[in-house]
């Protein structure tokens, strides 16, 4: 059988993702010809890589106009003269991971069935939409295959001739994906789906919202969107892929890390630092630790730690000249040596300080701790600093090895401190800073950003890149947003585990307490002399919440009365 594949590619970073290359490698043996249509720019290197591996036969680069259907239209009419030479035409896009399982068996099954004219992997049951409109049952368009008699039919040509460019993707789905099956059936053709859900309208769009059914039925391709739209299932889907399929799960994890928020819950277990064999690490450079002080508290803990860690080269900075002298004097009293001292206020100060320091020291990463009154409690802060140092340095060789081996790692971030699991201790970021860097509401509610302390291992060359254009930013604001900047530059991170073993019930209890806590609690800063602006902001929020509460209560009373009167 001679098969033609029209494969649609799109990447917002104008790259060729590894999971796409893997996909084409496994599709190549199944198709006589692969026409690669890219709705985004491809570098010469990416094109050469595809051609050298003989994964594509033809290439079309186009603007991302009209989404997949407009691209398929271009591909079909560009191949119109040669279509008659093929026994089937398959349309596919790169919106899935896979193949997870054998695709050849499914292809052979449908090709050998003379009662089937065209087929897909999943279908969407007929349903009524909000507003009363009706959507007929249809095959989903991420993978569609048409036999020769369909491709040569007037109904098929007419459908594609009428495809127009729409800017709204939902319009494309409603007008083209949902109608293609219907129009071909009206022309007398018969179809089938590898996973037939025609009698289960209650399941909705299974390809996106029920990836568990895709796994259970061993459908070869799983939608990338399903990991974010059904994120509560994602940990189990990933586990099933690892256990039941030969598909490399790191292709999934790495791609999702590129496109989803760095705090995506189901990805965090994959970010844990991997331990390395210490025998391999003997040649790695010394550790450089930059301590930035905004308080004198913690100096005793740190000098004690540094005395027992002679391999660490220490750089010290403070927020004021006076504090710098106090810290410097205390270090000298404890006979602890720092290689450099400086007063730092802004990111540009920090850049210069590190640049001067690294003229002497080598290494591709630096440890950074902002020594502050973490939780404004001396007892808690002392124990928390000890806990933080344990996370930061108990596996320092493995951390440095990770930076050495994986150039995509930009940060190593300590996990939560124990106190944060007992008590909510978030610190709000200056809203003007958030607006300046276009942080969305969802990105603002990021536990990596809202922490009341800052500590990282940072890749040095990445740090220079992240600092560019932010010279006037206060260091305290920059360090808080560092995970966000790291992600925006498309670097990844590893998590440094907290070895303090605490029951998960603590987190459940805290979440429960927060759920029932009043949203109208007076913020701590109101108890101190503050500006009228802050007070008015609080009263505005209180008024909004009060009105919302009354509206909810009125609706509840109405529902109770209606039920009582029935």
Helix tally equals 24
How many strand segments?
19
Distance between the termini: 66 Å
Strand content: 15-25%
**Form type:** elongated
Radius of gyration: 29 Å
User: Low-confidence runs (pLDDT<50, min 5 residues)?
Assistant: none
The average pLDDT is 86
Helix content estimate: 40-55%
- Major beta-sheet overview: 8 strands, mixed
Q: Supply the helix-strand structural class.
A: alpha/beta
Pfam family, one: RgpF
Protein name: Polysaccharide biosynthesis protein
Describe, in plain words, how this protein is organized in 3D.
With 566 residues, the chain is α/β, with parallel strands linked by helices. 44% of the residues lie in helices and 16% in strands. The chain contains 24 helices and 19 strands. The strands form 4 sheets. Strands 1, 2, 3, 4, 6, 9, 10 and 11 form an 8-stranded mixed sheet that branches. It has a 7-stranded mixed sheet with strand order 15-14-13-16-18-17-19, sandwiched between helices. Helix 13 links the parallel strand 13 and strand 14. The termini are far apart. The model has no long low-confidence stretch (mean pLDDT 86).
Give the gist of this structure.
By secondary structure, the protein is an alpha/beta fold. The chain has 24 helices and 19 strands.
